[in-house]
Amino acid sequence: AGLGKHLMHEHRAELAGKLRGQSRPPAGEADPTPAETMPGAPRRAHHARFARAGDVPQEKALANPESAPVLPRAETGGPLDIAIIGISGSYPQARTLDEFWHNLAEGVDCVTEVPSDRWDHSHYFDPEKARQGKTHGKWGGFIDGVHEFDSDFFNISHDEALIVDPQVRLFLQTAYHALENAGVTREQISSKYESNVGVYVGSMYKHQVSDGTWPDDGARKASLSSHMFISSSASIANRPSHVFGFEGPSVVVDTMSSSAATAIHLACRDLAEGVCTLAIAGGVNLSLHQDKYIA
């Protein structure tokens, strides 16, 4: 209230011009000076920060909107021009977003000991810190069912699915659920979005191995071991693009803990610049091997 009274009393003429859609008085009226509005006050350049908007004086654009240049979307668009139309995710102790929000609301502690389908932590845990080849940690946040995958649904052979990085499989499934949540069909991908869909993934760890993290017989694991490390991190983004027929950018970034946020930033930038018309963006991080813990 005090600020409003000050503006009305001390800056009445300028404020009236602002409210009329102009910052200067109409032609023929004197431009009020700081001396007129604030007697005895020194002249200040307090209009400078409002003077330019793309090298066009803001006052002129406001007073004469019909003369303002029509700018491309990329120059006029703001953050609210990008809509989140679908969302999906898997988290420790929460296979769905509903379960995730429930855990947050109830204050559920989702940190557990390393599950047996990852590795046997008893071989590596030591209560003493910094022992070579051992770890002082045996806890973490682990997603359930990382080895569960319906390869037939995605038209991937069973043998190929075994050697695909679980992070690739998880992101592929989550991307499908995000599209499902958005109500976007394959037909719409090609017709409405002209297949110009980008995939942006943040990922920093890659512990794809064949020495016990795979729930299958040892002979088959041994026969596939030579192929276990041919998968690139880039396939996390490129696999969904291939399966769903996307023709936009497929990008994987590793900026450590900010990887997912960076991926979302890149997706928003490309949407704003018209590089793609729809984007799937997020992150994936699985702890698959004890080496992530061992000193």
Description:
By secondary structure, the chain is mainly alpha-helical. About 35% of the residues lie in helices and about 5% in strands. It is built from twelve helices and five strands. The chain has helices at about 1-10, 10-20, 35, 60-65, 75, 95-105, 160-165, 165-180, 185-190, 220-225, 235-245, 260-270, and strands spanning about 110-115, 140, 195-200, 250-255, 280-285. The strands form two sheets. Strands 4-3-5 form a three-stranded parallel sheet, with helices on both faces. The protein has a two-stranded antiparallel sheet with strand order 1-2. The longest helix has 17 residues, at about 165-180. The radius of gyration is 29 Å and the shape is extended. The N and C termini lie far apart (about 60 Å).
- Measured distance between first and last alpha carbons: 61 Å
Radius of gyration: 29 Å
Assembly classification? single chain
| Total helical elements | 12
* Range of strand content: 5-15%
Q: Please estimate the helix content.
A: 25-40%
Q: Biggest sheet: strands side by side, in what order?
A: 4-3-5
Biggest sheet features: 3 strands, parallel
Number of DSSP E strands:
5
Uncertain segments: 22-74, 210-230
The rough form would be described as: extended
User: Could you spell the SSE succession in H and E letters?
Assistant: HHHHHHEEHHHEHHEHE
